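Inputs:
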Amino acid sequence: MTKIIHNANDWIWNQVLSQFPIQFATQMESVANHAKIPSVNPRLTQFLGGGIPKGAITEIGIPVGFSGRSIVADFVSHVTQTDLCLWVNGHSDMRVYPPAWISRGVNPLKWVVANSESPVRQLKASLMQPIFQLLVLDMESHQLSAEDIAFISMQARIHRYAVIVIRPFLLSNRQGNTWAKLRVNVTPAQNQFHVSVIKGLSERHVTIPHHVDTRAVRS
Amino acid sequence: MHWDSDHWIIDLDTFIPYWKAEAEAQRIPVVTLWKRILSQQLFGYRADEIQTPLALEQLPIYAVWDRSPFRALLLLSHMKHTQATGWILPGSPRYQQLWTSITWDTWESVARQVLDHWDHRKPKGFNRSRVQHSLHRLRLTAERLALKPSQLDRLPIEGIQRRYGPWIARLCQWILDPKSIRNTHDFPWETWYLSPRAQCQRHLDNPTRKWAECTQELIDDLDKIAHQTTAKITELEWLIRFTTEDTLRIPIRFRTPHALRTEQGTHRTALLQLMGAFTTATKGRRQTPYISGWHITITGTLSMGIDRLTLFEWSPDAEHQRQLDALANQVLTPLIRYQWVPHWTPGSDFNAIDQVPHHDLPHLSAILPHAGVSRPLFTVTTPYEFRLPKHQASLEAVMMPWWKQPPSTNASHERYHRYKDSNNRWLWVAQHGGKSEVRGIYA
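Outputs:
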């Protein structure tokens, strides 16, 4: 079943996945023994050379306001089929809306959310144990210091989990986070996302279509 | 609750179904069952001494049943004052006769006991001397109007509140409307524990202000407490004493029951909770005084085992649950997992996983999950008003639950729009009754 899906084109994949996201869970293996964490979107997985690396920080620049975080939600969706994922929300003016995540394939039993503006201080124990295979830190620009990033990077390396740090601005290729192994920007395009690699892989970019169905629905 | 040396208040409401089932099994009325249990357990009578109903009724004890604990205390005090022993049930002629003959001395004496308990707990806005003075003024006024305590219902409660303050009004409300005690949680209930609580006291030889210098002593004290109880703790109270003779009482609640014995010698989880609670309690103080000692008491425990998620101990789900339970007590912010609830209205379609879901439409559980596809991943913490241009096409129209509204209300829809604002951000805007507000953001 998994092989058939990987060979399908993107349009069929998106239509099928949006209706039956959880049915493929039984085919998935735990990511605990893998070097990378793939996305449920095979095009994105292929673009990133197999997924986001474990044991390191991946920094992604996603400005707020065009559904760019659904790209990261696709990684969460894959991990939560078998393993635990922690999403740290550092935005005081936003809260997750779980039904939208569940409809995109995130398994709520394995998806843990914490609202924290200082995760290193408030969630230190979760960083220092290999409980979560994926940690996503969706922080505002000033909340993570260089020391915080260094600490998180070290813990990720020791405990072999993947960390995604989401920045609410586009990343620059001139100066940036030296601790991040992979740096990526996500920008909006016409009903699509434009994903470009800044650091960690050869310079490349790809266009990923939206998952959101914007047709009017009466319920 | 042990009200004072002579009085006990027992809340029987909590386990009414149990009492009913037990009484049915013994084929006696519930009140008779209670009388037997109280006679034996509280008053120390033997079973053979209370075998017959007559023997039970003739016991030289004072006992009152009432929906309001304050009213029960008034009746009890009056019974003792007039030496009228027996079991008093609401609605009985004896109850009415006792109630109408309560004096102002009894009323004021019991009210002062309530003030003593409030004074001990120090609720916000409570000033003992002011409330006591208002209490005396109310009595003077009522006596001038030739009103007995049982006739206080002739005075409007709003007037009592205006003239004598909210605390006196509360006392009167407890008599007029016993249900108000449960609603406001103002009655100074204090749990009485069957067995001595695990606790430990410490006097520091060298008073200190530094957390690092307290750590080893706290670990030693937690080790002592771990030897006193094998139960998992859910709550503890840390009473800190300072060199200035002040005290600071810090209640600490564990998100999941925690076994102290599993971390003997380190107590990493408990220390994290103590440090976090201490930091929060002393936030804003310019300088914390020197700590001269403390008293740690376990105030909540769980003796029974936690239900397993699966039949097999070694399953990944059970292991994940165990890891999350342990982690919940080691972090300073809650770890939340959500569950989807079959409901079509945004906001009512999910709750935290430790809450029991209320299933309105389980038969639609195959369809409703997909309603979230067009909705944003994030909602705004505080919805705000937004001016939506006219004739804006909506993403979806959600019918409000008309059967929960007054009969004259017409069924209405809430329309949701995806709208780009001036900052090029896609917002999720809800429109209802001519008003629009931003509820979410397509982040």
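Remarks. DSSP finds eight helices and twelve strands in chain A. Confidence is low (pLDDT under 50) at residues 1-10, 19-27, 212-219 of chain A.
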